[in-house]
Amino acid sequence: MSESFQPDEKGFYGPYGGAYIPEMLIPNIENLRENYIRIMNSESFRKNFKTLLEDYAGRPSPLYYATRLSEQYGCNIWLKREDLNHTGSHKVNNTIGQILLAHEMGKKRIIAETGAGQHGVATATVCALMGLECIVYMGETDIERQAPNVARMKMLGAEVRSAVSGSRTLKDATNEALRDWIANPLDTFYLIGSVVGPHPYPDLVAKMQSVISGEIQWQLRNKTDKSDPDYVVACVGGGSNAAGSFYHFMDNPDVKLIGAEAAGEGLSSGKTAASIALGETGVIHGSMTNLMQTNDGQITEPYSISAGLDYPGIGPLHAWLNHTGRAKYLSVTDQEALDAALLLTRKEGIIPALESAHALAALNQLDLKSGENVVVTISGRGDKDMKTYMDRLQLV
Ligand SMILES: *Cc1c(COP(=O)(O)O)cnc(C)c1O
């Protein structure tokens, strides 16, 4: 495999990535770009990151052999249980890492954007832990839809600011957060929740989440005496749990990498978030990538039953993994995800997040063979989705 899956000096993965930002933000981004690798490699960062991941977040997360699901699919299915982390998803790996980075850089005020609220909760959590001021931007529509997570953020001491422009969802919250950062460049750290945004964020977040694939390697070796699985399967919103699950396997072409993106009500329904299947190259959130846009370049409103996958773009690493064919991205509809969530629940007693259910549903599209080892990342738990499950699975 000749291609590199690491970004170049300017943050490009092939034609994707970079930093397309207003002039005013350049000093901030440069400061971060010049310091992140040095800080992340320092003895003190590594020690603090490891301790908090273990003792606070509860890592390593188990790699669980799913016996009854394996029987169903005729291969060996291993679940990487990110749902068992503190705050209920993989998001906390990244927020712990970035809060330590912010601390090292002397920043006292943390801003973040959130859609469903999972990243907002993980950010508010680590700000409480470190005693830092926390402001979370959230679209007005999402504030109404995700009331329990808004309450959690407030209890944790964060201020939730409502974005009232555009469709009042994630991309509007992002615009507000960027505006805040421009106005407060000196004391503020912008804590981004996925492998998106201007360089160095996509690389920085991928490295924070790479703890997932690092653990998969030694856990699988302990259980099977092979460290590399045949498949790694993960859902893709912006792409952080997938990037973290793929990371240590990207340079080994024998490991098939599968991303599951949200088709919503179907690729041709107009209600979808399948940015790889339907997207074209363009700039969103400060980087060049695949995104869903109209003929005149307006970003299309995304739709998915799962709020965490409801994003019109994808991180530039994934645009590149797709472009080179190194990873394959499959589209999964709302209904397929619901069916897969119920199957996991009934076969293994694990209620997954709706996002993670997309990864499970992608198994139906693979030609799995007896003896193959398939790792599926369960990015989060289903508690936050119970209302949707109750309504859509006719459980009441
Ligand atoms: C946020 C979220 C996602 C989607 O984000 P990625 O950056 O693509 O990982 C997936 N699953 C859960 C549980 C989430 O909270």
TrEMBL record:
Enzyme class, UniProt record, top EC level: lyase
Chemical reaction(s) catalysed: (1S,2R)-1-C-(indol-3-yl)glycerol 3-phosphate + L-serine = D-glyceraldehyde 3-phosphate + L-tryptophan + H2O
CDD domains found in the cross-reference section: Trp-synth_B
Cofactors: pyridoxal 5'-phosphate
Keyword RNA-binding: no
GO molecular function, a single term: tryptophan synthase activity
Associated pathway: Amino-acid biosynthesis; L-tryptophan biosynthesis; L-tryptophan from chorismate: step 5/5
Domain of life: Bacteria
Ranges where the Tryptophan synthase beta chain-like PALP domain occurs: 57-380
Pfam families tied to this protein: PALP (PF00291)
PANTHER family given in the database record: TRYPTOPHAN SYNTHASE, TRYPTOPHAN SYNTHASE-RELATED
Protein's recorded name: Tryptophan synthase beta chain
Organism: Marinilabilia rubra
